[in-house]
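To: structure subgroup
Subject: Chain for Friday's discussion

All,

I'm putting the inputs and outputs inline so they're searchable in the archive.
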Amino acid sequence: MSASFDFVECAGKSYLFLWERRRDVLRLSAMAVAVKIVFFVGFVVFDLQQDILRQGLFLLPSYMLEGWVVAHLMIMALHHEVLKSGERKKSFLPAPEELDGAIKASMIVYVLLKMGLSVLGGIMFNGVQGLPEGPPPDPGFDTFVVVLAMLGFVVWAFRFLWLYVPVVMGRGMIEFVRRFRPFMSSFSFLGVWGMCFVPPLLLLMLFSQISGTLAAGSILAAFQAVIDYFMVLSSSIGVAYGVYSVFKGENKPTAIW
């Protein structure tokens, strides 16, 4: 039986926590957002929007700060959940003396994942640029099988993008992989990510339409930085709720299935 969690409930809890603790969230996030805005605007000014690999390298300081803040807020959200549920004595969270190490470890894993994605994205983008010009060949059955296999692999591997979440709880990454080993487990992560990705994306598209000629400039880049940070934060907290529930022994399917 695959480990799962109610991604609708987890995403809702994430949004609720961010709203209820908005002052603390804004205070902790201010520096991370400001640094991210500077880099995103810099990519526009220096015309680096298409250079994914170089963007990843330049964003290293931003990733470190962002990972540190996200780890803090995940722990804050989980402690808030434990206190509300009255399970303080049964908490699976790190002891106070271990918390700082868990946050730093989570930050390091977060940065490594982001850098790995940047390298992969740069390689793929350069590969696409190197394709010969002209109309693509007619797709055949072999192409369909390859695309389907690649899609299946991406869905299966999606869970590994969240390895920094169990680390901040003081749990091992191997334990995380074992718990979420079945293929279907990835859909819980995809669900949380989708619910935290689509609303900000629609907001970004609306802002692009309203801003008109400014959409290609620094203002849109700054707005993109804020939206990107919010998507990372909200989805990370949502996944943290779900992963924590699985570690507690719960296996809650999503009600809409």
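Points worth raising on Friday:
The radius of gyration is 20 Å.
The CA atoms of residues 28 and 69 lie 7 Å apart.

D.
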